[in-house]
């Protein structure tokens, strides 16, 4: 359902130079986003209704808002985060950010959003004595005490008592040329989107309970919409495999058929989905990060999850 539609005049005059991208817009204050450089940041602690959670759930929560876990890979952003921790860190909590290492990557860290890992930069921001290594694989921004506040600490990915910080590149002004119809972008929070319709910018606000669907250019219930805004994961490249849902600690999984999403299924109580064996198995015998084993049942190193279902 469309609650209301607001029409703005053509913004093409804002395009200062022929080939340049349109200018950035300010971050949306309705979501209490904070602007730094070309990015908008959102602390989960800004919203009292959002609780603490594990790394994968936090990543999912950012995705559902059309954002990602934060990537403080520049000196400027990382230092700003340290200053910010003086304010938000009063809660003495740690915040997930979007970096992790996985055993099968031989201990090298990476950012979920694909930003290259800069080891020299990271060395400046690890708290003293960190990273402590396995079984800790996910990076948090410490908010605990003056010594480590704002520095990075590797934590167990399934610690479920952390806040988190989402990040999204600032939106650019939506520009339409004469008579043009096209999809522009989704608003932070996934509750609105913008299109050009016959040369006019239209903002469509979704009804409560619905999210923006960029594929169909409409609003629909989340269980009918593709990720990131909706709950339908991408099955591209998975063929007929069933894939664990990391944010549910792999207690649920989804079934793909010919690269198409089919359904979400539950494992029996106490078991998790093992992507290698393609069956529900015990936590002890299943590969990390969902399970506790660092080797497959035949003794070879865990191959690692196929990341697309947590990274977009
Ligand atoms: C990790 O190290 C092993 C053994 O040196 C090597 O075979 C494997 O390719 C490495 N994996 C990655 C992701 O670099
Ligand atoms: C836009 O549409 C009007 C009315 O159909 C038409 O006269 C005009 O040529 C169109 N402009 C462009 C750039 O296509
Ligand atoms: C979106 O479009 C596809 C076909 O293009 C259709 O299968 C799907 O049901 C549509 N989703 C919604 C929510 O309308
Ligand atoms: C998936 O299974 C169907 C039959 O259910 C089969 O026709 C198809 O070739 C399989 N696709 C892949 C990629 O294995």
Automatic annotation (TrEMBL):
Residues 1-18 form the signal peptide. One of its GO terms (molecular function) is chitin binding. Keywords: Disulfide bond, Signal. The keyword Transferase does not apply. Pfam families: CBM_14, Lectin_C. The keyword Transferase does not apply. This is C-type lectin.
């Amino acid at each position: 359902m469309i609650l209301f539609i607001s029409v703005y005049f053509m913004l093409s005059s804002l395009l200062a130079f022929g080939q340049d991208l349109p200018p950035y817009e300010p971050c949306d204050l309705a979501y209490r986003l904070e602007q730094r450089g070309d990015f908008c940041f959102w602390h989960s602690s800004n919203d009292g209704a959002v609780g603490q959670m594990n790394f994968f759930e936090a990543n999912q929560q950012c995705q559902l808002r059309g954002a990602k876990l934060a990537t403080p890979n520049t000196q400027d952003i990382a230092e700003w985060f340290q200053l910010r921790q003086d304010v938000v860190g009063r809660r003495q909590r740690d915040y997930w950010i979007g970096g992790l290492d996985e055993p099968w990557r031989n201990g090298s860290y990476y950012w979920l959003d694909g930003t290259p890992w800069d080891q020299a930069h990271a060395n400046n921001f690890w708290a003293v004595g960190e990273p402590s290594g396995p079984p800790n694989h996910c990076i948090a921004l410490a908010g605990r005490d003056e010594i480590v506040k704002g520095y990075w600490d590797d934590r167990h990915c399934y610690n479920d008592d952390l806040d988190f910080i989402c990040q999204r590149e600032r939106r650019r002004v939506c520009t339409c040329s004469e008579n043009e119809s096209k999809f522009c972008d989704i608003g932070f929070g996934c509750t609105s989107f913008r299109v050009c319709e016959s040369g006019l910018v239209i903002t469509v606000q979704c009804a409560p309970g619905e999210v923006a669907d960029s594929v169909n250019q409409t609003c629909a219930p989340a269980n009918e919409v593709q990720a990131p805004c909706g709950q339908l994961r991408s099955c591209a490249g998975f063929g007929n495999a069933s894939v664990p849902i990391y944010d549910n600690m792999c207690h649920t999984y989804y079934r793909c058929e010919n690269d198409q999403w089919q359904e979400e299924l539950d494992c029996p109580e106490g078991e998790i989905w093992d992507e290698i064996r393609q069956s529900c198995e015990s936590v002890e015998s299943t590969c990390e990060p969902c399970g506790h084993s660092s080797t497959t049942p035949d003794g070879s190193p865990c191959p690692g999850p196929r990341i697309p279902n947590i990274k977009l």
